[in-house]
Design a protein that fits this description.
The protein has one domain: tt1808, chain A (Alpha-Beta Complex). Helix content is 22%, strand content 26%. The strands form 3 sheets. The chain has a 6-stranded mixed sheet, sandwiched between helices. A 3-stranded antiparallel sheet has the order 1-3-2, with no helix packed on it. The chain has a two-stranded antiparallel sheet with strand order 5-6. A hairpin with a 2-residue loop joins strand 5 and strand 6. The radius of gyration is 16 Å and the shape is globular.
């Protein structure tokens, strides 16, 4: 499935559209439908989100979300995983997590699906970095590699199973290796 634009409209018009599964994103005045997640994608997404939240949510450092629409810089994107520092999570009048996140995440993670356009995914990360995101990852299950985009630095490719991946500074309790992420794909 190739990620092709659906049609052109304004951000305001896009935000009035009903939600869909898989999600639609608004990039450069065009609407794109995300590909339907498959087994590798879903496994990594769930396990990585649980692993991050087991450390950062418990300590009220931050919180990871899956498939959360983030509206900022004239775009509406739905990264596979976003992380917001605790103090940046929007809340409503009752103190509940807000439904609408009109800000860039601190960390965004995309997991490539088969035939997904990597240029669109890279463009989403670069846009987020230009609007305050501190780090972006592209996880590629096919090559078992992680491309890391730190804010203001050269991207780095990690494929060595023992490599410890750079993350947004969230305390010393969260460490992830390439091998750990792709180890989740083994059904044991």
């Amino acid at each position: 499935m190739v990620q092709a634009p659906i049609k052109t409209l304004s951000l305001e018009e896009f935000l009035k559209l009903p939600d869909s599964k898989p999600a639609k994103e608004y990039i450069n005045r065009q609407v794109f439908q995300k590909p339907m997640p498959q087994g590798h994608h879903s496994t990594i997404q769930v396990d990585l989100t649980e692993t991050i939240n087991a450390v950062v949510k418990k300590q009220r450092i931050g919180r990871a979300y899956t498939e959360l629409r983030c509206v900022f810089g004239g775009r509406a994107i739905v990264p596979d995983i976003t992380l917001f520092r605790w103090e940046r999570i929007p809340v409503d009048e009752e103190g509940n997590v807000a439904n609408v996140f009109n800000l860039a995440p601190d960390w965004m993670i995309e997991i490539l699906s088969p035939n997904q356009n990597p240029t669109i995914v890279t463009g989403k990360i670069l846009h987020a970095l230009n609007h305050g995101t501190q780090m972006g990852w592209i996880i590629d299950p096919e090559t078992q590699s992680v491309l890391v985009y730190p804010m203001g630095k050269q991207p780095q490719l990690f494929s060595d199973k023992t490599a410890i991946l750079p993350i947004v500074p969230l305390g010393k309790d969260l460490q992830l290796t390439v091998g750990e992420i792709f180890g989740w794909l083994k059904h044991q």
